[in-house]
Amino acid sequence: MAGMNYEEMKAELARRLKPGRFRHSLGVADTAAFLARRFGVDEEKARLAGLLHDCAREFPNDSMIAEAEKRGIEVELLERSMPLLLHAYIGAQRVRELYGVDDPEICQAIYRHTVGGSQMTPLDKIIWYADMIEPSRDYPEVEHLRQLSREASLDEMVLTGLSESIIFVVQKGHLVHPATVQARNEILLARSASQGMG
Fold first, then answer.
1. How far apart are CA 56 and CA 92, in angstroms?
2. Would the pTM count as exceeding 0.90?
3. Is residue 125 a contact partner of residue 148, using CB atoms and an 8 Å limit?
4. Fold that domain 6-197 belongs to in CATH
């Protein structure tokens, strides 16, 4: 299946995802392309990572652990209790298996799009954030986060998104993934280091 073009990938994805999930994927692709233009990141990579970020959602939630283990992905205790998180890690491999995408930057952005991670690249941040604010998303803070996507710096925008995400998860009584905390802490530490130098 290697060497699919963008339209072929789109058609393949449409066959495999539920209509609402496919529409979300198109929204993330467009939003990621907009953010990439704004922040000087490769627009084609952003659009492609946005399109395919949820490709592993073709698998039902109750088969995520088996799909991960089949690919040699380590399943931690936290993921065992929230198997949906695994779709990001499976997706990073699925884009190679099915769509012929082996660009490490795109694969990493897909891998990190749900919970973030350490030393996130601008592309990682763009896909993570685009997933939160694409047009079909609807929750109380989304308009504020969309406004930041037009006005704030990349780190300021992502920092707010990470903070909102952690608050939301805590208020729901759910587990907070350490990668999300780490991503937020790193942005804060980088900011205080640059302020210290200024």
1. 9
2. yes
3. no
4. Hypothetical protein af1432 (1.10.3210)
